[in-house]
Design brief:
Layout lengths: L3 H14 L26 H13 L6 H53 L1 E6 L2 E6 L5 E15 L9 E15 L3 E8 L7 E12 L2 E9 L4 H4 L20 E11 L4 E8 L18 E8 L8 H4 L1 E14 L7 E2 L5 E3 L6 E17 L2 E15 L7 E15 L16 E2 L4 E2 L1 E12 L17 E12 L4 E13 L17 E11 L1
Antiparallel strand pairs: 1-2, 2-3, 3-4, 3-22, 4-5, 5-6, 6-7, 7-8, 8-9, 9-10, 10-11, 11-14, 12-13, 14-15, 15-16, 16-19, 17-18, 19-20, 20-21, 21-22
Helix pairs in contact: 1-2, 2-3
Length: about 500
């Protein structure tokens, strides 16, 4: 040990002093003033000096005794060194435990922050989300009250207030990967209906899967939210596209979000119909859509809002459930329906070229739909393939300068007379046409009680009091055409004159 020299000098001094003599006080060893285990760490020299002083108090009895005492001192020094190492290890362990406890506490706090619930209420609904944003549940709603007034209709139509929609919408995301949507409508005459109920899996931006009940991706205007269409009622073109259906759908965006696509396998529903949560035959429909905004990243503002695309589906339909229940005007009155005995039996398909253009406050939307169905006038009768077609062109201009978009208008200010602000105003116009295949008459539909063509002109003013509250004033005029051989005076009173309707909608959407 490094202390041997000092020890030998101390022992030599004891020998010179002789047996029974006392060692002079060294003055360099002071005991700790506080508890030994608190922090005091005696240095080796102090320990040796203390031992030497102690040894001086013990009478020497000879060389053998002196050697024994030296060995005892060395053993005591070794034990003190060992004890010192133990105290240092214990102190380090204590520090490690404190550091581990602090790290665990920090991890617990971070975990608590991730799982802590955040609550927000905005014009987009009520949202409950986790601290890290990975999980959320959103509750939204839509209420639409319509006033319908018909002019010069000889009593064929009923002027009325109509609760058009009253929906409770719940949506959620879990682990940023899974999502769900559940939409219930309470505005029907019967029990509440389930419009949408589906599960989504977002693998990445290019591939997202959806399982359940959702909108069939055929019609362009049909895919737009009920809250943000130009007019309070979609055009007669939507009569020819399938509405909501059950199935599996894959969708995503490609090439920097300039191309979007959708493809899936669905149960299949007829024109203008929504699935009743079951299938009415064993056949399934395949559906696909591709939609491109080629100039989105071009840096040319006048071209960035141009989008074009095409959608289609193909399947087989059977029974009376496989053909449409009827086609309706903008005023929601039926102007065409098949004879009650007519059944669908065979291939059906749709194709729809479509597009839109948005540039600042100006918006333009157009689409064409061809709907093909095979029908029989009755069981066992010869069937025929009917091709019905429709098209529309609709436009809007926001007078107050806000941007027009597929997701509606967001006013810069809300309606507040006290502050002198009035929200946003938009004027809209639409021209649409729907033509029934002439081969439908008279085998499949009565020429005297049905029109074979409807042409609609619509003009409107939309007032957005806020992002949540809107009032729409729309006037429609629909002219009817008739198949060859139809009587001069139709048996259906509705068809004896043009339909003229003023529909005012009061809307709350969040």
């Amino acid at each position: 040990m490094k202390t041997n020299g000092l020890l030998e000098n101390s022992v030599a001094g004891l020998a010179e002093a002789g047996p029974g003599s006392a060692t002079p006080a060294t003055g360099f060893l002071r005991p700790p003033t506080g508890p030994v285990l608190r922090v005091w760490r005696p240095n080796i020299r102090s320990v040796l000096a203390a031992m030497t002083l102690l040894a001086g108090l013990i009478p020497l009895r000879g060389a053998d005794n002196t050697d024994a005492e030296i060995q005892a001192l060395r053993e005591q020094i070794r034990l003190l060194d060992q004890r010192l190492d133990q105290l240092q290890q214990q102190q380090q362990q204590l520090k490690d435990q404190q550091a581990a406890a602090a790290a665990e506490s920090a991890a617990d706090q971070a975990a608590a922050a991730k799982t802590a619930a955040n609550v927000s209420i905005t014009d987009k609904g009520f949202t409950l989300s986790s601290g890290d944003g990975a999980n959320s549940v959103k509750i939204r709603g839509l209420v639409q009250l319509d006033s319908r007034l018909f002019f010069g209709d000889q009593g064929a139509s009923t002027n009325a207030y109509v609760l058009r929609r009253a929906r409770l919408i719940s949506e959620g995301t879990f682990s940023k990967l899974y999502s769900f949507q559940f939409v219930t409508d309470f505005a029907g005459t019967g029990a509440p209906s389930i419009l949408d109920a589906n599960l989504g899996v977002a693998l990445d931006q290019t591939l997202q899967l959806k399982f359940g009940k959702f909108k069939s991706p055929v019609g362009l205007e049909w895919l737009q939210s009920d809250s943000w269409t130009f007019f309070d009622e979609r055009s007669i073109v939507t009569d020819l596209v399938p509405n909501r259906d059950l199935g599996i759908l894959a969708s995503g965006s490609l090439l920097g979000d300039t191309i979007s696509y959708a493809a899936g396998v669905l149960n299949g529903v007829p024109d203008g119909a929504t699935s009743n949560n079951t299938a009415f035959d064993n056949d399934k429909n395949v559906v696909g859509r591709i939609y491109a905004t080629p100039f989105k990243s071009s840096g040319i503002p006048s071209l960035q809002g141009l989008s074009i695309g095409v959608s289609a589906d193909l399947g087989r339909e059977k029974t009376t459930s496989g053909r449409t229940a009827g086609y309706k005007t903008d005023g929601q009155q039926t102007f065409f329906s098949y004879n009650a005995a007519v059944i669908a039996d065979g291939q059906s398909w749709h194709v729809s070229p479509q597009g839109e253009y948005r540039y600042g406050p100006f918006g333009l939307l157009g689409e064409y739909v061809l709907s093909t169905v095979n029908v029989r006038p009755g069981a066992g009768a010869a069937k025929a393939e009917l091709r019905n077609k429709a098209w529309q062109l609709a436009a809007g201009y926001v007078l107050t300068g806000e941007d027009s978009s597929f997701n509606g208008v967001t006013p810069r200010t809300i309606f507040n007379p006290t502050a002198g602000t009035w929200g946003a105003f938009e004027i809209v116009g639409r021209y649409a046409n729907l033509k029934i295949d002439d081969a439908a008459f008279p085998r499949f539909a009565s020429a005297s009680s049905n029109a074979d063509e409807a042409t609609s002109l619509g003009l409107g003013l939309n007032w957005y009091l806020s992002k949540v509250v809107a009032v729409k004033f729309d006037f429609y005029q629909t002219r009817f055409g008739f198949a060859p051989g139809a009587p001069a005076v139709p048996t259906a009173v509705l068809l004896r004159q043009h339909e003229k309707a003023l529909i005012t909608r009061f809307q709350v959407s969040f």
